[in-house]
Design goal:
Helices cover about 45% and strands about 25% of the residues. With about 750 residues, it is an alpha+beta fold. The protein folds into five domains: about 60 residues; about 120 residues, Beta-Lactamase (2-Layer Sandwich); about 110 residues, Beta-Lactamase; about 160 residues, Alpha-Beta Plaits; about 240 residues, TIM Barrel. Bound molecules: ligand C2E and calcium ion (CA) (2 copies). The site of one calcium ion has 4 residues, from loops.
């Protein structure tokens, strides 16, 4: 300790200033003592000063720390005045809004609040002013970069420390002088928490979707399921949690299925596909399942999620669509598309196994007539019943299909290895079908009989493509029709040959007219005394290579191709020319010439005109021309047909109903038809002497014709016996080989003049 010399007047000053010192001096025993005491005091004083400086430093440090705490606090601190203007804020507060602190001062706090939350802020602000204690609210604030942040606002009202007014005075909002109120606001950024909460909420609501969801741990133990899961599987969450998903296994898939499924999940992290599961109630149902692995940051699987939707409905719709696409809606039988598909399979399997198969075309005889007379509803009933009967005739693996209309196709598979034996098997089934379809049908109130024509073709392996097989069976069926219907025919290459020539014939037929290859033959018609009354003109095609072709062969072709219209025109013209020749000669002037008119020709809109033109062109008496119409020609649009016939009658030509008795539909119209003649079909005449029912039919026709005041003529009369019966029944006009075959005009005229 160093001695500090002290002067007397210095001492005086000190003692004056310091009463404690004075006291000290007063109590000093000697100067020595006094000096010593003083020195001690001086030292103590020095120490106190040092202590004070230290304390000052501590306080400064503490203040710095407080400023740091204030500025860098994780929350925003703001002070607002009672108008809501920011008067002070910490750095964090400014950073939260992304605005420089100085630029926030003196701005309204509300200008940082998102417009959608303006009302909420206003209410909060009002509450703070009116109430004591802290207030809280959550606000969305607008960051300067355009983003939003969610903040929790804690506010407290306080007095301006500089104000002399008491808190009580300040609390009174009505106090007009209450201007020094301040609001201390703490802003906590809760954006992350809100985002997380929202995500959780979204996740939770997404979890409760239509789709069944199941979450398992990495070992496959079910941790969580949603409501949809409970609804589809029937298992409640309590029942499912803690168990393995194998609780749903249906047994529909084998171990390999699940093994490969898990291999894919391990390899790619996900799998999806159709899977059949079992509900709690035992029902097995299809679902579309997606499984994916959820991995943590370290790429280790933490969970598996299984999402599935019940696709029972979708499956049902698929089935429905498949049904519409592959099945005939009237009969429920497979349609052409499905048949094609099955045929492809059948060919492949036949190739593999060497077994024969057969394709069978079945066409109902006279179906169109039934449809036209009794209506489509009844027709549909027949088609349905036929379908049922056909299905009963075949074995399980065979296919019965309907192609449309009255056409059915049967595909027989797995027949014999030997073609001949296979043919016998197919024929046996065909016979069964013939028998079955000949049985009585009950269609609503109608009893009905029908028969089919069946064409069969056999196949082994891929010798023929399916289209060929369809063609073959169709040709065979056509052959069955031709040989009198209600029968079965096999396709054979010979048949094919004759059909191949069909198309070349059509080409030649087109040229036949310009090449003048047609000729009219005439077949005489006589009365009961054998006198000629007229003739029927019958067309012949004198083919340059084939020789004479019968109209039975080419008329149907001409009808199909439409050529019949021009051919018919030629016939009419040639016939009228012949009538003119006859008309001029006394011996033949009363002969009536009959001309066959085909349906297509008759339906031409200008047919009546054409007839009239021909008559006028040749200048013939119209009543010497007779048009032969068939019953089938009158079948549809009967009213139109009657109108055409009436126009023809008005011209003066005669009309005969050809092949009478083979159809039955127009009987009810017979009275209304402006006819001159019925021509009894030759099929009745043929068996007239031996078949009692044909006899009865012919007698009935004759009686009916008489009652309708119609002339009646029988065609196909070949024997005297037939002629006598007809005469005794009252039929006095005849046509047939007995009197003369169809012949060229020169022969006929020689014949006429001879008599
Ligand atoms: P259709 O009108 O019924 O003609 C009668 C057919 O019976 C003729 O056959 C005739 O030769 C044949 N026939 C006549 N008498 C007898 C007989 O006593 N016994 C037998 N078994 N047959 C007899 P064709 O000439 O072959 O004519 C066949 C069919 O061709 C005709 O049947 C007719 O529908 C059609 N046709 C013939 N010429 C024409 C024509 O110019 N135009 C049209 N559209 N069709 C024609
Ligand atoms: Ca005829
Ligand atoms: Ca006839």
């Amino acid at each position: 300790m160093s001695h500090i010399p002290i002067e007397h007047d210095q001492m005086r000053k000190v003692t004056e200033a310091r009463p404690a010192l004075r006291q000290l001096i007063g109590t000093a025993r000697s100067t020595e003592e006094l000096l010593h005491e003083l020195q001690v005091y001086q030292i103590e004083l020095e120490m106190q000063n040092q202590e004070l400086r230290r304390t000052q430093l501590v306080i400064e440090k503490m203040r710095d720390r407080y400023v740091d705490l204030y500025e860098l606090a994780p929350v925003g601190h703001l002070t607002l005045n009672r108008d809501g203007l920011i008067i002070e804020l910490n750095l964090t507060g400014a950073e939260m809004m992304g605005v420089e602190r100085s630029k926030m001062i003196n701005r309204h706090f509300s200008s940082f609040v998102c417009s959608g939350n303006a009302d909420r802020w206003y209410l909060h602000f009002r509450d703070i002013l009116q109430r004591d204690g802290r207030q809280q609210c959550e606000l969305a604030m607008q960051h300067s970069d355009g983003s939003y942040l969610q903040v929790n606002v804690t506010s407290l009202k306080s007095a301006d420390l500089l104000s002399s007014r008491t808190i009580d005075q300040l609390s009174n909002p009505d106090d007009p002088l209450n201007t020094s109120v301040q609001l201390r606001i703490v802003l906590t950024d809760i954006t992350e928490r809100i985002v997380a909460e929202t995500e959780l909420r979204i996740a939770a609501s997404a979890f409760e979707t239509q789709e069944s969801l199941m979450i398992t741990d990495p070992n496959g133990i079910i941790l969580r399921v949603n409501k949809a899961f409970t609804e589809t599987t029937g298992y409640s969450a309590e029942e499912a949690i803690g168990r393995y998903p194998s609780m749903l296994t249906s047994g529909h898939h084998d171990g390999d299925f699940y093994r490969s499924m898990w291999e894919i999940i391990h390899a790619t992290g996900t799998w999806q596909g159709e899977i059949w599961d079992r509900r709690k109630n035992g029902e097995i149902y299809p679902k579309w399942l997606t499984i994916w692995a959820v991995k943590g940051d370290n790429d280790i699987v933490t969970h598996y999620v299984g999402a599935h939707s019940d696709i029972t409905e979708r499956k049902r719709a698929e089935e429905e669509i498949k049904h519409l696409a592959f099945y005939d809606h009237l009969t429920g039988l497979p349609n052409r598309r499905l048949l094609q598909d099955r045929l492809q399979h059948a060919l492949a399997s036949s190739e593999r196994r060497g077994r024969a198969g057969a394709l069978m075309f079945i066409d109902l005889d006279n179906f169109k007539t039934l449809n036209d007379t009794l209506g489509h509803d009844i027709g549909d009933k027949l088609l349905q019943q036929v379908a049922k009967r056909l299905e009963l005739c075949v074995r399980e693996g065979d296919t019965v299909a309907r192609l449309g209309g009255d056409e059915y196709v049967i595909l027989l598979e797995d027949l014999s290895l030997e073609l001949l034996e296979a043919a016998a098997q197919a024929e046996a089934i065909g016979e069964k079908i013939l028998f079955s379809l000949n049985q009585k049908y009950i269609l609503a109130t109608h009893e009905y009989y029908n028969s089919p024509s069946i064409g069969v073709t056999l196949f082994i392996g891929h010798e023929y493509v399916s289209e060929d097989l369809f063609k073959h069976a169709d040709l065979a069926m056509y052959q069955a029709k031709k040989s009198g219907r209600n029968t079965l025919r096999f396709f054979d290459p010979e048949m094919q040959k004759s059909i191949d020539s069909r198309s070349s014939i059509e080409g030649q037929l087109r040229k036949a007219l310009e090449n003048k290859e047609f000729q009219l033959y005439y077949q005489i018609q006589v009365d009961s005394s054998g006198n000629p009354v007229g003739a029927e003109a019958l067309i012949r095609w004198i083919h340059p290579e084939r020789g004479m072709v019968s109209p039975a062969q080419f008329i149907p072709l001409a009808e199909e191709s439409g050529l019949i219209v021009s051919i018919g025109g030629w016939v009419l013209d040639t016939a009228c020319a012949q009538i003119l020749t006859w008309q001029k000669s006394k011996q033949t002037s009363n002969l009536i010439l009959s001309v066959n008119v085909s349906s297509k020709q008759f339906r031409q809109v200008n047919f009546v005109n054409e007839v009239q033109n021909a008559i006028q062109r040749h200048g013939i008496k119209p009543n010497l021309l007779k048009l032969e119409l068939t019953e089938s020609l009158l079948l549809d649009k009967i009213e139109e047909a009657i109108a055409t016939m009436k126009s023809l009658k008005a011209i003066g030509v005669r009309i005969s109903l050809d092949d009478f008795g083979t159809g039955y539909s127009s009987l009810q119209y017979l009275k209304r038809l402006p006819l001159d003649q019925l021509k009894i079909d030759q099929s009745f005449v043929r068996d007239i002497a031996i078949d009692e029912s044909d006899k009865a039919i012919v007698q009935t026709i004759i009686v009916m014709a008489k009652s309708l005041k119609l002339e009646v003529i029988a065609e196909g009369v070949e024997t005297d016996e037939q002629r006598h019966f007809l005469e005794s029944a009252g039929c006095v006009h005849y046509q047939g080989y007995l009197f003369g075959k169809p012949m060229p005009i020169e022969q006929l005229e020689a014949f006429l003049y001879k008599n």
